[in-house]
# Entry
Amino acid sequence: MFNYPQLGRQTQAKIKGSPLAEIDDVGHLPHTEAFDKFIEALLAFLKK
# Structure
């Protein structure tokens, strides 16, 4: 399997000024695996 936390950090580092919302124990489908945590992170991003 892939190391999604590491891939997320690497991708963020390549996109200047990008935010990263890490959700523990979730793979590549956070919107289905941890819906409430995903929505929380999404709403926090949209409020910026």
